[in-house]
Amino acid sequence: MSTTQTRPALSGLRVLDLSQVAAGPYATMFLGFMGAEVIKLESRSRMDINRGRAKPGPTDPRVYPNGEHGERPYNRTAHHVHRNINKLSVTLDLAADRGKELFLDLVRVCDVLVENYRGSVMDRLGLGYGAVSQVNPQLIYLKISSQGATGPEANYGSLGSTLEQTAGLASVTGYGDGLPLMTNEVYPDPVVGILSFGALMAALRQRRQMGIGCLVDLSQREVTSMLLGESVLDFSVTGRVAGTIGNKHRDMAPHGVYPCTGDDMWVAVAVGSEDEWLALCRAIGQPGLASDYRFQDRDSRHGNQEALDEIISAWTRGWDHYQAMHLLQAHGVPAGAVLKGSETINDPHLEARGFWDVVDNPEAGTYKQTTLPWMLSKSPRQTTVPAAGLGEHSFQVFNGLLGLSAREIDTLVEQGITGDVPNPDI
Amino acid sequence: MIPSNGEVLSDIKVLDLSHGVSGPFCTKFLAGLGAEVIKVEPTGTGDSSRQSKPFLGGPDDVESSALFAYLNTSKMSVTLDLDIPDQALSVKQLAQESDILVESYAPGHLQSLGLGYGALAETNAGLIYVSVTPFGQTGPYRDYKGADIVAQAIGALMYTIGLPDREPLKVGGESVLYTTGISAFSAAMLALHVRDTQGFGQHVDISAMEVMTVAQIHSSINEQFGHTSVRRPTNLVRAKDGWVSPGLESGVQLGTWPKVCELMGVPQFAEDTRFTTQEGRRTNQQDLLKVIGDWAATKPKEEIYHTLQALRTITGYVATVEDLLVAKQLVDRKFFRTLADPVFGDVVHPGAPFRMGEDGWRLLPPPRLGEHNDEILGGRLGYSSEKISEVSKGGEV
């Protein structure tokens, strides 16, 4: 991607990653792409939820390659394979005294700790910010939580889908019939993952300036509510409560998705400016529409968009969703095919930009991996390192980083404090 | 004493040539961390978001858009016309003294005005130049136009949102453009880290399509593993005054269900095998929602949320913006802040997206169009007061 000879952007940065599910693992996946050494810490009794169960039942909802659980199902769920790339995998039982000691030894040699447990989990283990900052005042402790580190709901649990509710996003997402809806993509999680990266860069800069680490307190609910900030301002002044308007837009019209040839195929169109409107009329072969009084300016198009939608749909039905996009864009109309995930992996634009990495995961096979939401001209991303098997790097880290002997590590395995198989009871 | 995070970027100057939503959201965050942000707007109309709903006052007032007001806190505004060569030269002069430049023009446009990355980096090698566009600076779609809904569509976020018998549905508001702005912020902070530690600036390329392809966290991988992602029925049930999701389908311990049954006054379901396990409750979701719905319909949504969360479920309630401002948790954390506006009075804004100290997030009212022309054009670029007034009016210079 680049011929520049520079160090990876985050070389020398060591991250202790206790995070699970999506927001935290996304943030640390990005850190790994930029060259940080990420040590993902799990317990054999409490693996990252992304790994699913040690022995999944026949109706387990998690996704495995071709539905096959394989010998080590916990190393091949889609979520684990996809989100836990670029990380070393170490297991450690934090409930055991020896586990706690080793955890603090790791804290001593790391720059960053990331966790997204329920609010008080780390404090109850005696490993909260107070404890870890004592052994390493330089440490940056990124606490990603549902509700923030403080407040009456600090210990409440959440999922991406409940955050969409409690942060207000669901109240503005829906078809406009009064029913709020959530995304099936647990949208707040990747958003928080992306923001967490920037928050860490800010904390690292503060550490360079002040010579001391800090707690970064990031509330997923607060961040998600920032996605409807303008409606907060509006309510506070005018008393208007934003609701759902389907695929319509406050200002633009026409605006929505339109049916194309094929089953459940659509193209999205968004017309803002006068130029875009005229371009649309030309693109669909109806230049006469431009002089139709019903559509003469933005407000009248907005008021008559149902009529407009029918006219546009009649045209889009004759085209494949990609063809429709290319034809509209060729005339200067903002448009995008509504792609499925399986289509994005073959999209020529993403391909030309080198967005995907082809990864050979030894336990799950070959697949295309999403990479980063940015490209830097002189600091290219590192090539994806496949998601590690459970505890694959425990020896490497305990021996190489903490100086434990092979014998000491054997003892830890015997005591169940570390190991590369899940606790059989889970 | 540990300083507040408002000072982290106090040595950083940002030149903001972006418009709309994504770029300005990025520079709002940089300003929040203490950077000086000079926003360059076209004379007369200003940033296009000044014409966007919702309006706090009249639609013809360039100071009335809530969208603009939210996106542009803690910045300075100067009016310059990039198409007029000597004003473009002034922009170049400002760029020479800047650490970060953020722009959102069509790829190649600023280059054609002598303001591309290459030209500016020649005399300011440390410059971090952030381009935020719908499809990025390279590739076959680079010249294509975008919008929030276009990014959601092409990045495969949208296909799985909405109900099975309806068309794909967009996430509400401008949330995808905001997310693109957050990516630009994180990438700018990354590039600043590289400059601090390795000594050089660079060009940062943000594509909204790629941000969305990263944000669809299931589809691309699931479909490669043979599992098709589809739109699904909702799991919300109606409460007395709104909607809740009971949150009994994942992350819930075994002993929780009987307690929920007791609470709802339906002990007969405690042993019902349709509901005793998480997997059972997922499989029989519609039956479960009916049982819970009968109980929930008589209770306020926030009461249900707090009561069920106390039993360690993962319950949610659909908050409206009205609910947010009085939500106990957000109030307790003082998340929202009130800024005084001379015309609209008290305006409530969301506060810091993360906290690294006591009260570090800088949040000052958005600038009036050209409010800082005297200070910047006069004070830094040496424009005469006559020339400033010409520039402010948009007259030919």
How would you describe this structure to a colleague?
The complex is a heterodimer of chains A (about 425) and B (about 400). Chain A is an alpha/beta fold and about 425 residues long. Chain A has helices spanning about 25-35, 80-85, 95-110, 120-125, 130-135, 160-165, 190-210, 220-225, 230-240, 275-285, 300-305, 305-315, 320-330, 340-345, 350, 395-400, 405-415, and strands at about 15, 35-40, 90, 110-115, 140-145, 215-220, 255-260, 265-270, 335, 355-360, 365-370, 375. Chain A has two domains: about 15-225 and about 355-415, Rossmann fold; about 255-345, 2-Layer Sandwich (formyl-coa transferase, domain 3), CATH 3.30.1540. In chain A, strand 10 and strand 11 (about 365-370) form a beta hairpin. In chain A, helix 1 (about 25-35) packs across helix 7 (about 190-210). With about 400 residues, chain B is of the alpha/beta class. In chain B, about 35% of the residues lie in helices and about 15% in strands. Chain B has helices at about 20-30, 65-70, 85-95, 110, 115-125, 150-155, 175-200, 210-215, 220-225, 255-265, 280-285, 285-295, 300-310, 320-325, 330, 375-380, 385-395; strands at about 15, 35-40, 75-80, 100-105, 130-135, 205, 235-240, 240-245, 315, 335-340, 345-350. Chain B has a six-stranded parallel sheet with strand order 3-2-1-4-5-6, sandwiched between helices. Chain B starts with 12 loop residues before the first strand and ends with a helix. At the A-B interface, helix 2, helix 6, helix 7, strand 6 and helix 8 of A face helix 2, helix 6, helix 7, strand 6 and helix 8 of B. Strand 12 (about 375) of chain A pairs antiparallel with strand 6 of chain B, so a sheet runs across the interface.
What do the pLDDT scores of chain A average to? 96
Distance between the termini of chain B: 51 Å
Radius of gyration of chain A: 25 Å
Looking at CATH, which topology of the largest domain in chain A would you report?
Answer: Rossmann fold
Q: Report, as a whole number of angstroms, the end-to-end distance of chain A.
A: 43 Å
The CATH architecture of the largest domain in chain B comes to 3-Layer(aba) Sandwich
Flag low-confidence runs of chain A.
none
Query: Which geometry of chain B do the CA atoms define?
Result: elongated
Second CATH tier, the architecture of the largest domain in chain A: 3-Layer(aba) Sandwich
Largest sheet of chain B: 6 strands, parallel
Number of strands of chain B: 11
Sheet bearing the most strands of chain A, described? 6 strands, parallel
Name the quaternary structure: heterodimer
Please estimate the helix content of chain A: 25-40%
From the spread of the alpha carbons, the general shape of chain A counts as elongated
From N to C, what is the helix and strand string of chain A? EHEHEHEHHEHHEHHEEHHHHEHHEEEHH
How big a fraction of the residues of chain B is strand? Answer: 5-15%
What's the structural domain tally of chain A? 2
Stretches with pLDDT under 50, minimum 5 residues of chain B: 1-6
Q: Let me know the average pLDDT of chain B.
A: 94
